[in-house]
Design brief:
2 copies of one chain form a homodimer.
Chain A lengths: L2 H7 L34 E2 L4 H14 L3 E4 L16 E4 L15 E5 L4 H10 L2 E2 L12 H6 L7 H4 L6 E7 L5 E4 L13 H4 L8 E8 L1 E2 L3 E9 L2 H15 L3 E8 H10 L12 E9 L5 H14 L5 E4 L3 H20 L7 E3 L5 H15 L4 E7 L4 E7 L3 H14 L24 H14 L12
Parallel strand pairs in A: 1-3, 2-3
Antiparallel strand pairs in A: 4-8, 5-9, 6-7, 6-8, 10-12, 10-13, 11-12, 11-15, 14-16, 15-16
Helix pairs in contact in A: 7-9, 8-10, 11-12
Cofactor (chains A, B): FAD
Organism (chains A, B): Rhizobium puerariae
Keywords (chains A, B): FAD, Flavoprotein, Oxidoreductase
Chain lengths: 456, 456
Amino acid sequence: MTSVAFIERLPAGGHDLGIETDRDMMARHLADATRKPGPVPSLVARPKTTEGVSAFLKACHDAGQPVAVQGGLTGLSGGARPLEGEVVLSLERMRSLGPVDAVSATIVVEAGARLQTVQEAAESAGLCFGVDIGARGSATIGGMIATNAGGIRVLRHDMMRAQILGLEAVLADGTVLSSLRGLMKDNSGPNLNQLFIGGEGLFGVVTRACLRLSAKPAAERNALCAVPSVDSALVLLQRLRSALGPQLTAFEGIFAPVYEGISAMRRGAIPLPAGSPLYVIAEMQIFGAQAGDDVFETVLIQAYEDGLCSDIVVSRSGREFAAIWDVREGCTEFTFSLGRLTGHDISVPLRSIPAFMAEAETLLAGLDPEAGAYVFGHLGDGNLHYVVRTGRREAVSPEIYRLAARLGGSVTAEHGVGLDKKDYLSLVRSPAELATIRMLKAALDPKAILNRGRVL
Amino acid sequence: MTSVAFIERLPAGGHDLGIETDRDMMARHLADATRKPGPVPSLVARPKTTEGVSAFLKACHDAGQPVAVQGGLTGLSGGARPLEGEVVLSLERMRSLGPVDAVSATIVVEAGARLQTVQEAAESAGLCFGVDIGARGSATIGGMIATNAGGIRVLRHDMMRAQILGLEAVLADGTVLSSLRGLMKDNSGPNLNQLFIGGEGLFGVVTRACLRLSAKPAAERNALCAVPSVDSALVLLQRLRSALGPQLTAFEGIFAPVYEGISAMRRGAIPLPAGSPLYVIAEMQIFGAQAGDDVFETVLIQAYEDGLCSDIVVSRSGREFAAIWDVREGCTEFTFSLGRLTGHDISVPLRSIPAFMAEAETLLAGLDPEAGAYVFGHLGDGNLHYVVRTGRREAVSPEIYRLAARLGGSVTAEHGVGLDKKDYLSLVRSPAELATIRMLKAALDPKAILNRGRVL
């Protein structure tokens, strides 16, 4: 179908669909954060309302017109990159936020609302939103729901799924499913919202969500620890988890090559000198007038005495707190500065991290003696960003993923599958699981117009 | 099909299906905790393995034989009560527990494992399991997953859904979906496990689960507070939530008629005298060597000074802690002692609880001036057990549910729909939602053999 014919079929009455066909205007809809542009779509629709999304999808469904769904375009698996013949549905003009309900600790927002906007609304009501990722200024709530975003505070708040108390989504044929009551407890039949969380847009388009907000801590502290090995780090994690319970909010790892890179990039102006094989950033939250920070120091000092850490700096001011997190932000900055690298967003059971690191090093040496591994990530939840510099990318990546799968892990811990991780899905999902996903897709989107060719 | 003919068709080879056809032996498979027995089924199958469940379901699927799925039979919505013509599939012989993985803080258990067994396994490894309900000695993990059980610590740990890091389930045709890696982060395609959590057995039978375990607190404290109104209770909740963050684990409410009943039943031997319109039990967990309990007292004393509570007792020993929780356990004991009552497991947004209580009182007085309301429950998450003594049950129940729905609430907060709440589902689920549930049911269980007639 030509774009002109399709546009003529679109419902005119009442819906501001924000149709855009100018090629220059569409330039920013060609790629997500992977920067690999797809073809220019025949049009981009940017509806203002759920009814507009519904009317647009119904027209696409009737015409059998495939649709690429876009949020903030911060994805790292190519899920939002348009394919040949697709039109684009962008939620970017649906970004309003309802008022914070301070009693229930919830807020209803449109799918195009930016994460940072939601975080700021929560904070202004004395609450906080549990998920935080580096792309907070651009990532949209809808995209974060569709990809079940994770980030650095999964230890405390779990992933995006756990923040969703209600959802509104539109099926491929325009049917609107609205469940925005936002109850903490509601077992009135199967929870359909779960289909759309982490569903990568296969089953429907999220238009609004009721989000859980949490108590805002009175204070936060963090520490940067030099640790001699992954084994030591895991013991330290267990001790902190046991001593701090849900007040332990983050446990991030940075392996030597990345830490050394950041140290050089910052000209040594970082809280601990390079030289240790692994660095850990731990963070805790303090509520009320608790002396919980003493526990933090007690555990860390004991860990030092027991040789679990060779050096520690604990923040004592907002400036020091920021300086420690700045090291973590440096991971992406440094690895991006190295040019074309190959990232692997894997997770393995915590107990298998030492085996993963050792075996990955061996296989990398075998496949490409010139290769370098730059590893950092969310150590506390088993999620490592295993970034490799290699000229033999095609040989290396499948082996890294195969290793993660063999150790009981995942080939995409938080980035999703999209277009770019499809080849590895069968390493971790059985034929029965893949067949079931296809069955659900056929039931909910019989013409397969939504994000066709993604995931499966 | 006669039972004999069906049994002859069952696969013999290798599977211990534990087929039971003796009428006396089947007596305990006729009802859940609602005590309303269904007809005697032609057989009860009690397989020992997932393969056995699969073989049995495949035979049922091929024969078009409907199946009632049973766990610990502690449900309160009749979901496990057999219907005419059904056979029963009980998971009671699949109750083994794997070892606790202390590093990952997980455990893999079979669906028939009892909650209390899981709690004890976690504790013996220095960890804890987040969901607790009164029926812990009988309720099985599989049943709790299928009904997304809640209980008293939802404020801290959320419901059963949040404890599930992996699942194995068998579809109606015997297909086994196994996803037991137990990763904290895994976005390798849509999460099929979510279908079976709170799915009430419509889409498949849970056979095993990988459960999340949490840090075991160093200490727990609770307090019993007499509060003058629901509004005061909600302010107290906000203050405790803000001061304690995730250390606030429970916030239970007991309204005067129930509290007075417990007081009489215990001959006054309870921590606070009756006389207040509402009582609240708050609980907090303390980790490490924190002085968090001081915050607890500080907030409560300030609440007393501000008139939010008229009396408070804070536990200072294990004995006092148990005495306060004993009051809460008395709620069920007392209301059961009143004879045939009508329970309503509703939830409303927190801010609407005062309106719900006031309007329910008015409508009850209008429908049955003789009626008495006995109300208690999980005030902190908006979930009230609104129990009514009335001779006009048929007139009263629909109005209570209608009111909850009108105030943006749920007609079944944690008990599920089963057979007994079906009539009220359309008050809270739209025709589009119900049609989508039917579509999923048709895709996953085309002959509708699993828990036919439940929920929908």
